Please model this.
Amino acid sequence: MTTLTDRPHTALLVVDVQNDVMAGTHNRDGVVANIAVLVDKARAENVPVVWVQHSADHLPSGSDGWRYVPELIQEEAEPVVHKRYPDAFENTDLEAVLAGRKVGRLVVTGAQTDECIRSTLHGAIVRGYDATLVGDAHTTEDLSEWGAPAPDKVIDHTNLYWQHHTAPGRHAGTVNTGSVNFG
Model:
């Protein structure tokens, strides 16, 4: 239902599942395991897997902390989009990567829920994409000392509001790993 014409395909978007980003996140191992299941399923169904990798002053490109977690292996043919802002579309080649693969629907996973995941979901919807959040395949760290809710509540709330998000001609929604349909 995307508003992007001639974009019938779906892609799995794996956002910022990097060593330093994932250190100390809620249910880290379970989330990484769910993402690995989705990556395997996408590859088996010939669905593009697009990796997004953040860099910043505190997360310098090429550092150990910047690298993807060792449990997730990127295949050489799979694109890696490098970003410096929370929205993976902002000042990156993500749109060109997706357009080249005729992708109009994204299945979104990764970290951090309350920053890059939310920003990328909204960035996708406003650019005309359908965007499905995998509710048990995203996570965040505990930011409660700065006034945020506990990580499990941040995740639950994001799953709830994205489940009911709407935009003209586009679909949003939240599903769990076992219910992901790339078709």
